[in-house]
């Protein structure tokens, strides 16, 4: 008798498929507001093969552990990390930020984080979980951190400064070179949140876009987080935190007596090797050249979308730095609700009175050509145009 009862299987799949039908999906091309993506086919295939691996026990899975090292090497090289550096796999941008602030807090024994209003809401979690304090600095008219306001906020309690390389709402990049200088001068910890921009900015540079340096080439940068499940074109959930000095990992590691490795660093214990193997497979498949093409394509479609939207008579909040557009709207909730009724998903950003459109790799010109007439019709219907 088979242990896998086919009748039950069919019944369960039927039930789950009914739930899944209610979801939006990336392959429709109608999700325009998400920083996640339909993963690359190689990522899907590899993910399934590594389902039962556990990187919390590297003694059992030494092969998968080596894949993890290779992925970390790829990203470290991309970010010009020094030889002294180390990498920590995390579940995504939130855990990357938490882990970086954990290191900063341990190293400095201080609690204040200086950051801009545009920082991701994961920092509010950090404030609460880690009993740290957020010291907010305003933005310039370009929606970047106003560096001139930083020095006034540095004091004996400063644990770290945050720079954002690809902001959640508009994809803007803080002046990381200036932040690096300040942090070098004042001997402060500088974390760069490149959850979105980590897989974009290095390629924008190769494509000759004028974007500031943001990585370990800058001496003051201490840690950088990047997400493979955003522009890394891989499966959820995977991020990487690269740490300038391997020794800092001691600050977030504990003895792990019952497993093969003597110590374990980071928040998670048991963690799947699936997303790690998948992300590595995408880096092998695409390589630097492939990612460059992907980013070039996303940027071309961003430009195309910008033109179509401004042709409609609408305005952007700011010129896109990367593949993120903020479209100003007076009738924000009305437009967003109607778009959703028509099957299109964008993000509603109330405090900027705009929608966010993210041009991820699955978004083609054809999709934008389908979207624009619907968007225009809705804008007319609600009196936006
Ligand atoms: N840092 C930055 C700059 C981010 O933009 C994000 C997420 C994070 C950290 C946190 O990353 P995780 O969510 O991986 O922990 N930014 C996206 C956002 O808030 C997350 C997201 C992605 C939301 C896809 C919705 C969605 O469909 O928009």
Brief description of this entry?
By secondary structure, the chain is of the alpha/beta class.
**What do the pLDDT scores average to?**
97
Strand content: 5-15%
Number of domains: 2
Largest sheet: 7 strands, mixed
- Detail the poorly predicted runs: none
Radius of gyration: 22 Å
The CATH superfamily of the largest domain turns out to be Type I PLP-dependent aspartate aminotransferase-like (Major domain)
CATH architecture verdict of the largest domain: 3-Layer(aba) Sandwich
What is the tally of beta strands?
12
Percent of residues in helices comes to 25-40%
How far apart are the first and last residues' alpha carbons, in Å? 66 Å
CATH topology of the largest domain: Aspartate Aminotransferase, domain 2
User: How many DSSP helices?
Assistant: 10
Structural class, from secondary structure content? alpha/beta
Secondary-structure element order, N to C: HHHEHEHEEHEHEEEEHEHEEH
Are any ligands bound, and if so which?
Answer: ligand 0PR
Spatial shape: globular
Structure description:
This protein is an alpha/beta fold and about 375 residues long. Helix 3 (about 60-80) packs parallel to helix 8 (about 275-310) and helix 4 (about 95-110) crosses helix 5. The chain is built from 10 helices and 12 strands. The longest helix is centred in the last third of the chain and has 38 residues, at about 275-310. It has helices at about 5-20, 40-50, 60-80, 95-110, 120-130, 175-185, 200-205, 275-310, 330-340, 365-380, and strands at about 85-90, 110-115, 135, 160-165, 190-195, 225, 240-245, 255, 265, 325-330, 345-350, 355-360. Helices cover about 40% and strands about 15% of the residues. The protein is globular. The strands form 3 sheets. A 7-stranded mixed sheet has the order 1-7-6-5-4-2-3, with helices on both faces. The mean pLDDT is about 95. The chain folds into 2 domains: about 25-40 and about 290-380, Alpha-Beta Complex (Aspartate Aminotransferase, domain 1); about 40-285, 3-Layer(aba) Sandwich (Aspartate Aminotransferase, domain 2), CATH 3.40.640. A hairpin with a 7-residue loop joins strand 8 (about 255) and strand 9. Bound molecules: ligand 0PR.
């Amino acid at each position: 008798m088979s242990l896998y009862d086919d009748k039950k299987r069919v019944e369960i799949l039927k039930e789950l498929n009914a739930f899944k039908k209610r979801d939006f999906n990336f392959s429709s091309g109608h999700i325009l507001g998400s920083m996640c993506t339909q993963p690359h086919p190689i990522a899907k295939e590899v993910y399934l093969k590594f389902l039962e691996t556990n990187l919390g026990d590297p003694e059992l899975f030494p092969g998968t552990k080596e894949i993890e090292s290779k992925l970390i090497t790829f990203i470290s090289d991309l970010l010009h990390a020094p030889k002294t550096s180390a990498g920590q796999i995390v579940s995504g941008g939130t855990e990357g930020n938490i882990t970086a602030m954990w290191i900063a807090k341990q190293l400095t024994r201080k609690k204040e984080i200086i950051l801009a209003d545009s920082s991701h809401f994961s920092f509010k979690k950090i404030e609460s979980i880690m009993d740290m304090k957020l010291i907010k600095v305003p933005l310039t008219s370009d929606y970047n951190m106003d560096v001139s306001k930083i020095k006034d906020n540095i004091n004996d309690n400063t644990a770290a400064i945050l720079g954002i390389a690809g902001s959640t709402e508009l994809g803007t990049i803080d002046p990381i070179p200036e932040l690096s200088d300040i942090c070098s001068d004042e001997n402060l910890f500088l974390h760069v949140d490149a959850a979105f921009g980590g897989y974009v900015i290095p390629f924008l540079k190769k494509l000759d876009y004028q974007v500031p340096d943001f990585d370990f080439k800058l001496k003051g940068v201490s840690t950088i987080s990047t997400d493979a499940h955003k522009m890394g074109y891989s499966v959820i959930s995977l991020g990487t935190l690269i740490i300038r000095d391997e020794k800092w990992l001691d600050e977030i590691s504990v003895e792990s007596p019952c497993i093969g490795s003597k110590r374990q660093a980071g928040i998670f214990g048991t963690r799947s090797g699936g997303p790690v193997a998948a992300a590595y497979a995408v880096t092998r498949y695409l390589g630097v050249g492939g990612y460059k093409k992907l980013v070039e394509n996303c940027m071309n479609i961003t430009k195309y979308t910008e033109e179509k939207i401004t042709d409609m008579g609408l305005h952007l909040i700011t010129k896109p730095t990367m593949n993120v557009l903020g479209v100003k709207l007076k009738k924000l909730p009305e437009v967003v609700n109607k778009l959703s009724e028509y099957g299109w998903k964008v993000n509603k950003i109330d405090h900027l009175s705009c929608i966010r459109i993210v041009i991820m790799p699955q978004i083609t010109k054809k999709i934008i050509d389908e979207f624009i007439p619907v968007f225009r019709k809705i804008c007319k219907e609600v009196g936006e145009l």
